[in-house]
Design a protein that fits this description.
Helix content is about 25%, strand content about 30%. It has two helices and six strands. The N and C termini lie close together (about 5 Å).
Length: about 80
């Protein structure tokens, strides 16, 4: 059976079919263009952050960007898991 949801931390889940891209949040700090992009989408309300802890990764869907406390490597591994 294939897992249909991606657990992004502390009980929060996203449908796997909605995931477009998983990225490392630390790597976005190296690019001024990416930093500006995140500033704009944050101002527009497209970023969802349900955590008090410092996020480590982001998950791009067709409508929103979700921040996660779980590493992008672990999330990518979970995307490939078959239960």
């Amino acid at each position: 059976m294939i897992a249909l949801f991606l657990h992004i931390g502390k009980g929060h889940m996203i449908k796997k079919e909605d995931v477009v891209f998983i990225g490392d949040l630390e790597s976005t700090k190296d690019s001024k263009i990416t930093e500006e992009f995140f500033d704009i989408i944050r101002e527009e309300g497209f970023i969802i952050n349900n955590f008090d802890d410092e996020p480590r990764s982001f998950i791009l869907t067709g409508e929103k960007i979700y921040l996660s406390i779980i590493s992008s490597t672990t999330l990518q591994s979970r995307m490939e898991d078959i239960i």
